[in-house]
Amino acid sequence: MTAGAGRDVSGAPGGGATGLVCPAWGGGMEGDAGPGDARRALGHLVEAVLASRGEANAVFDILAVLQSEDQEEIQEAVHACSRLFGALLARGELFVGQLPSEEMVLTGSRGANRKYKMWMRHRYHSCCNRLGELLAHPSFQVKELALSTLMKFVQLEGEHPLEKPKWEGNYLFPHQLFMLVVGGLLSPEEDRSLLLSQFREYLEHDDIRYHTMQAASDTVARVTDGRPGVPLTFWNNAFMLLSSVSLPRQEGTLSSFYVKHTELSDKWKVIHLKEHRKAFQQMWLRFLKHQLPLRVCKKVLVIMHDSILPHLAQPSLMIDFLTRAYDIGGAISLLALNGLFILIHKHNLEYPDFYRKLYGLLDPSVFHVKYRARFFHLADLFLSSSHLPAYLVAAFAKRLARLALTAPPEALLMVLPFICNLLRRHPACRVLMHRPRGPELDADPYDPAEEDPAQSRALESSLWELQALQQHYHPEVSKAASAINQALSVPEVSIAPLLEVTAFEIFERDLKKKGPGSVPLEFIPARGLLGRREDLCAQHFTLS
Fold first, then answer.
1. How far is 480 from 475, CA to CA, in rounded Å?
2. How many domains, in total, are found in the chain?
3. How far apart are CA 296 and CA 332, in angstroms?
4. Is 298:333 a contact under the CB 8 Å cutoff?
5. What does the alpha-carbon distance between residue 3 and residue 125 come to, in Å, rounded to a whole number?
6. CA 205, CA 119: separation in Å to the nearest integer?
7. If I label 284, which of 89, 171, 520, 537 is the partner at 20 to 30 A Cα–Cα?
8. What separation, in Å, do the N-terminal and C-terminal C-alpha atoms of the chain show?
């Protein structure tokens, strides 16, 4: 029902016609009426409705201003509605229970008091629907005010429920009204990032967070149901809302509620962190089961290990999404590694051909992607086990050495110690550096095109690439490659400080190096521009 629908002055419940028309407008504000006039006029109408049920039809005049095209008029009308319906909720003057249609309210044989409360609740619903529409208003001030007013109604309706409890102590929350709020935030047409930033402050309350997770799950299911192409805007809005939900890490009873209760019941799901984890899990699973745009998929993978997996009731359920992402390739695969690492090492999940796919990610582009540091940090963790077969470690060392021939200096300063660390952990691979009784080879047996590290014949090869890099133009790279000329030390070299070294940092470091005091240019020191006096040039030429 729209804000002004169903107006019948002669049949106003609880009294006759109001006869009250605000002098500042007739069906809308006059062009010369200022915001102060609108505030006063709307204030008089609110006071009239609250003072006498006979003035009930004045509600239509207030709701009519919500339809105005003037931003300031709308804001004044929102304030008036907030005051009016906030007072009616607190006073219990809205009908409680299953609300019949408005036609049944006006034609039914009910008492005047009951009919008034039903009729006024319909006006309240009209107001809330209009406020939901205002979440899409061009003015952010109007959006923000509409959101705060709706959340005020959520709080008041939670404290003064408009539905009857099924049993004593039953937990009641205004789900329908809150779905209107979340549905407005998850718009498929418009970016709601600023409004979602405002909504984050409400997520600090345990009950709002819990019901947000449920409402977001239902909204994602509704928007995507039977819809072939969901706009990118919706996915961005949904991700921003979902990623704003953060659960407490410590177990315990939750009691920071937005809707105040005189007493909390242990039977309520909303006070148990275990139930929050279930809702959190369902929310993310419903979101991630869809074919997400790649940019949204990247955002999810970036926060997966820290903000999603630790809060799931069953983290293993993320294996399908992570394996799909890992199979995409490129930067998506690199980002999926973090989540897979947690599932494999902390939750004992098996992933067939994991190392084969990890081996396949090693290509020249790996040195230039944005997430290079994260990838090599995780690769270092995956290859840290001493139980890995020698052929597998040798294949990784050889592939990295081959890629190092064309890598930039900033990557080489990290890759060369990485390779040496692999040799330290796995002594069986040191034959790549020194093979005392090895055969004479006419060519390198290693096959860089082989996708299976077990068939690459890396263990039959050698790390001649590192010897070639000892002639690198950059002295630090040459020094790092020369580490294989001596016996490798037992403690590993930490690559953590080298993971994010950039070309700019290397250049700045080189500029700050101090050279020798004097640079020799000639073995016979020059004396004057034309040489010594006895020189032939000095005898025949002079400077004047």
1. 9
2. 4
3. 11
4. no
5. 9
6. 33
7. 171
8. 104
Q: What is the pLDDT of residues 301-316, one digit of tens each?
A: 999 999 999 999 999 9
Give, as one character, the DSSP assignment of residue 408: -
Residue 384 lies in a domain: no
Q: Is residue 117 part of a domain?
A: yes
Question: How far is residue 346's CA from residue 87's CA, in Å, rounded to a whole number?
Answer: 54
C-alpha 398/C-alpha 429 separation (Å) is 10
Say which DSSP state 307 is in: I
Residues 34 and 47 in one domain: yes
Which secondary structure element, helix H or strand E, spans residue 300, and what is its range?
helix 294-303
Measured CA to CA, the distance from residue 445 to residue 441 in angstroms comes to 8
CA distance 19 to 55: 8
Residues of the domain holding 344: 291-351
492 token code pair? 């590993």
For residues 159 and 173, state if they share a domain: no
- Whether residues 102 and 155 share a domain: the answer is yes
Asked whether residue 406 falls in the same domain as residue 260, the answer is no
Backbone angles phi, psi at 274, to 5 degrees: -60, -40
| Secondary structure of 61-115 in HEC code, one letter for each residue | HHHHHCCCCCHHHHHHHHHHHHHHHHHHHHHCCCCCCCCCCHHHHHHCCCCHHHH
Helix axes 409-425, 503-512, angle to 10 degrees: 100
404 lies in the same domain as 344:
no
Q: What is the pLDDT of residues 137-161, one digit of tens each?
A: 999 999 999 999 999 999 999 999 9
Question: CA angle, corner 290, sides to 231 and 347, nearest 5?
Answer: 140
Q: Which two tokens stand for residue 29?
A: 């504000």
Domain boundary among 143, 164, 185: 164
Token digits for 333?
Answer: 């695969």
Is the pTM higher than 0.90? no
Statement: residue 244 has pLDDT above 80 = yes
Q: At what angle do helices 35-51 and 58-65 cross, to 10 degrees?
A: 150
